[in-house]
Amino acid sequence: MPPPRQSTDESRSRAMVIDHAWRGLGPGLESLSGPGGAPLTRTVKLIVLPLIVRPALRPELAVDFLGPERAARLDALIRESAPRLAATARWFTLLKKARRALGVVAGNPQDLYFQRCFELATEHGAPSVGAEAVARAVVEEVADAGGGRTVEALRGHLADTGRCARLDAELAVAWESRPTVPASGVSAAVTLAAEVLDACAAPGDSPAYASMVDAGHGGVFGRALWTHANEIWGAEEPPAHLGLTARRVPSRPEVGRGASTATLPAPLDRTLFERLFVVLQSSARREELPTVPELVEREVGRSCAPLGLYDESLRVVVVLGGRLAVGLDPLGTGEPAPGRTAAHRAVNSRWRREASVLRARRMTVSPHPDPDGGPLEALARDLRTPWAAYMRRLWVRLHGRDVRDAPLADLASAWAVLDGVARSVMMDHRARVRSALRALSATPAAAVEPTEPRSA
Fold it and tell me: What is the signed CA dihedral for 120, 122, 127, 131, rounded to 10 degrees?
């Protein structure tokens, strides 16, 4: 796939066009917006892009940077949708109220209801007489569609002591029977990975990607990580596992009986409960998942498989992601490396154009950074070690695909995931920088005079 088109004096990023148009819609969108008035990430992902912009029908609006005419078209599409978006926001508030009344707690309400609310707004307009009954029926329908595929069902399934003992014994057998591979077995994968990442910037497929999958190079890497962790990612400075585990080598997974999004460990250190907790919490279409007993049984083997994944194409994408991650340099502080590929150049160049990154970059060289290791200094520190957030998010996305039996059959689909995770991490960092700047501006005594005009 070609890399994102570079910005010019005449073009604007699609994200900026969406943000500007959204802020011009006026009040009534609070439930779809963040504290600063910008659309929520899920609003853009679940409503604006697929239901308003519809890039499949308007491919000219699917690029990252838009010329004046296309930017004006995108702006008009969003502004024309203002009444429907306002109705969507009101339906979402009503569905959340019905959800609380019914005691439904499974799943993320935005994932579950955003698109349904847009459909309701399209069909009925703003909520009126009888809307409460409609909202209640929708919440019940969505809950029933899950077919018991909820965190509560998972907790109940694993509350059985005898079942947990059986699962623990199966985990022990699966872990002890894992095959290993000498560390030297990764050299061919390293060479092919560089070739694949270089091909990400070109149209068409790459035979190297298919070769990696056919040769089982993802499994080779995964088995090497169990016993030969050092230097296989091709960099000495990052941790050997790039944040996939906090341990020197991963240990046998446990069954577990609880989880919290605030305290989830690294992906390869999670229990069965924690792995499936994330899947059930983040699934907008839980009816597509296997039943909870089947999810648990399959996760026993998957958690003991190389890289914690069954499908070889997904394992290969972890390898590609690791090779990409060690070359991420959003601050632009490192020397150009011979091993940098077209994929690295595409992601790094986009990241370095971010105003939040420019601000963080100045902090790394400023003689007067945030006092007492303030929030911006912490964010700048994250940008100096970008691989952990990238790999953590990549693994979760691939794990979700593995659970659904959704492999990545070609390079185009693999690059869409690799690049999409980079964009997601970048957008998350942008939001955190803006939040930190708002907090600092609200407490002038703690603010620091920047060495240059602020860009974030």
Answer: -40
Three-state DSSP class for residue 72: helix
For residue 445, what pLDDT is reported?
A: 42
Q: Which residue has the higher pLDDT, 213 or 453?
A: 213
In 103-186, alpha helices (H):
109-124, 131-145, 151-157, 161-176
Sequence-separated (6 or more) residues with CB below 8 Å from residue 166: none
The strand pairing partners of 39, in sequence order, are 33
Packing angle, helices 387-403 and 272-282, rounded to 10? 80
The pLDDT of residue 81 is 94
**Mean pLDDT over residues 36-61, rounded?**
87
Length of the chain: 456
Q: Which of 92-101, 104-113, 319-328 has the lowest mean pLDDT?
A: 104-113
Both tokens of 377, joined, read: 């200094």
199 neighbors 206 (Cβ within 8 angstroms)? yes
Confirm if 71 and 53 have CB atoms less than 8 A apart: no
Verify that 355 and 220 share a domain, yes or no: yes
Using CA atoms, how far residue 338 sits from 190, 306, 344, 345, 352, in Å, is 14, 29, 11, 12, 19
SS3 sequence of 215-280? CCHHHHHHHHHHHCCCCCCCCCCCCCCCCCCCCCCCCCCCCCCCCCHHHCCCHHHCCHHHHHHHHH
User: What pLDDT sits at residue 193?
Assistant: 85
**Would you call 57 helix, strand, or coil by DSSP?**
coil
- Find the domain containing 51 and state its range: 12-83
- Strand, helix or coil for residue 283: coil
User: How would you label 72-94 residue by residue, b for 16+ Cβ within 10 Å and e otherwise?
Assistant: ebbbebbeebbebbbbbbbbbeb
**3-state SS of the chain: helix, strand, coil percent to 5?**
65, 0, 35
Counting the structural domains of the chain, the total is 3
Side-chain-side CA neighbours of residue 174 (13 Å): 21
Is the pLDDT confidence value at 421 over 50? yes
Predicted local distance difference test score (pLDDT) of residue 192: 86
Q: Are residues 393 and 330 in the same domain?
A: yes
- Alpha carbon 15 to chain centroid distance? 17
Whether residue 257 is contained in a domain is answered as: no
> Which token pair is 205?
């497929």
Q: Which two tokens stand for residue 454?
A: 């602020």
Are 240 and 388 in a shared domain?
A: yes
Q: E strand or H helix at 403, and its extent?
A: helix 387-403
